[in-house]
Amino acid sequence: MQGILRFIIDNFVTVAGAAILTVFTARIIFNIKIDAKSLFLYAASFVAVSGAIVAVANYGLAKLSPSLAMIFRTVFTTLTSILLLKFFFGLNIFKGTISEFVYNLFLAIGNFIAIFAFRCFGIELKEIKSSLIYTIIAFAIINMMVIIMLYLIKTFKLFSCFPPEIKAKAYKNYLIYILLQFVIITLNFYYYIEFGDSADGVTSMISVTMLIVFLTFSIFYTNTFFRLEASNQELEYQKFYNQALQSIINDLRRFKHNYNNILAVFGGYIKNKKWCQVERYYNEICSEIGKVSFLDNLTSLNIKSAGILGLIMAKYEYAKKMGVDFRVITEGEIDEVKMKISEFCEVLGILLDNAIEAAKDSVEKKVEVFMKREERALTFIVLNGINEKVDVTMIYEKGYSTKGEGRGLGLGIVNDIVSKYKNVILNTCADDSKFRQELIINL
Question: Rounded CA gap, 417 and 431, in Å?
Fold first, then answer.
């Protein structure tokens, strides 16, 4: 009976537990969405594939070289976990690798603490392996330590600064950093198992404490690094948008300063009865007046975010080039949103670009933007004309586009960004002549 229970624990419970905790590690770090069905399928697939890998390692490679069997088992179970994370949860290879290494880092610490706890009671590793009760207790201690560390990460939001726009170099440095931590703790773990008998309890306690302090410091240091990276990028975006706002102010000043000159030119043409030149000059001035009137109206709106204001100004210029009427209406004060400003502007920018391009080919050639501040939400509505009905069930599929081959990535990016935020909702509807996107950000 004990043999059956041990087989179940070693080959099913332990492996399934590792799979589930790996998924929750990815969930906490990268905020992936999980559901019971996907989690069950992931765990079942991981158990099945890992079983095959262990069988090959133990009954094939182990006869040739135990070390080779261990390396084979470790490498291929890790690759299996990463690939299954991509298949079931859409996590890319790099993020899957980070999730796997973070989990294994915590697992190594859990193993270290479990062995240390047993040795405090005079129980050695061989006794743990030979006793079913000790095995169950060790399994509980190890996974409890992993859960505690994941809980601390979630509670203190230690990995909250994982924006996708952080440079690839920073990601690589972070992965190397995690790998080094894993190697250091693993080496300490094996040293403790091999030579722990010759070390006194005080030395072992100091070793464990220093490792925990090292890990804690490393996590906080890494988190601080990412916060600084994110802050630097936010400052770059804010700098760009402040420059856009300054451009608005300069255009207004330039036009008002040139007001008397414009009247003088009109007076000269009229006095000399140069009616053709009057008409041509009038058309030129109307274009500038339209821009300044829009900008003047824009500055009078309750848009307090420099980022949003700069984006609207840029899209007005784009719409003007496309021959599209671009209107903005606000209700309430539009201030900072509960999203990263870079990601919000990317989402709104894509929605506006799509609206302008669609309106260009429509009969109405108009885009309307409505911004509304409510007590607990900010709502952004983009309404545009279309020349044919759009299938709203397909537009968020990557690669799908009504614009032709090689397009259709924009709304896929929008969907990826929106799905990261629990407080953000994107509604889409369309009829034969109108297309409407509604972005709701709960505060």
Answer: 26
As for how many domains the chain has, the answer is 2
d(CA 426, CA 439): 5
352 contacts 323 by C-beta, under 8 angstroms: no
Domain boundary among 231, 253, 275: 231
Largest CA distance in the chain: 112
- State the Cα–Cα distance between residues 147 and 8, nearest whole angstrom: 22
Q: Enter the DSSP assignment of 388.
A: S
Q: According to the model, what pLDDT value does residue 406 have?
A: 43
Phi, psi of 375 (to 5 degrees): -60, -40
- The pLDDT score that the predictor gives to residue 266 is 72
- Domain end, chosen from 204, 231, 258, is at 231
Whether residue 181 is found in the same domain as residue 313: no
Q: Which long-range contacts (CB under 8 A, 24 or more apart) does 402-409 make?
A: 403/357
Question: DSSP code of 197?
Answer: G
Say whether both 208 and 311 belong to one domain: no
How many other C-beta atoms are found inside a 10 Å radius of the C-beta of residue 400? 15
pTM, two decimals, is 0.54
The CA distance from 51 to 19, in Å, is 13
Q: 360: domain CATH number?
A: 3.30.565.10
Residue stretches of the chain with pLDDT short of 70? 1-3, 7, 156-179, 181-205, 207-208, 211-212, 215, 218-219, 222-223, 226, 229-230, 233-234, 236-245, 247-248, 251-252, 254-260, 278, 281-301, 396-409
Residue closest to 95 by CA, chosen among 9, 32, 17: 32
Which domain, by its residues, includes 321?
A: 301-443
Q: Does one domain contain both 226 and 357? A: no
Residue 354 and residue 426 in contact, taking contact as beta carbons nearer than 8 Å: no
Q: What would you report as the CA-atom Rg of the chain, rounded to the nearest whole angstrom?
A: 31
Burial of 372 (0-12, 13-18, 19+ CB in 10 A): middle
Following DSSP, what letter does each residue of 204-271 receive, concatenated?
A: HHHHHHHHHHHHHHHHHHHHHHHHHHHHHHHHHHHHHHHHHHHHHHHHHHHHHHTHHHHHHHHHHHHH
* 308 occurs within a structural domain: yes
**Amino acid (1-letter code) at residue 324:** V
Give yes or no: residues 105 and 225 share one domain.
yes
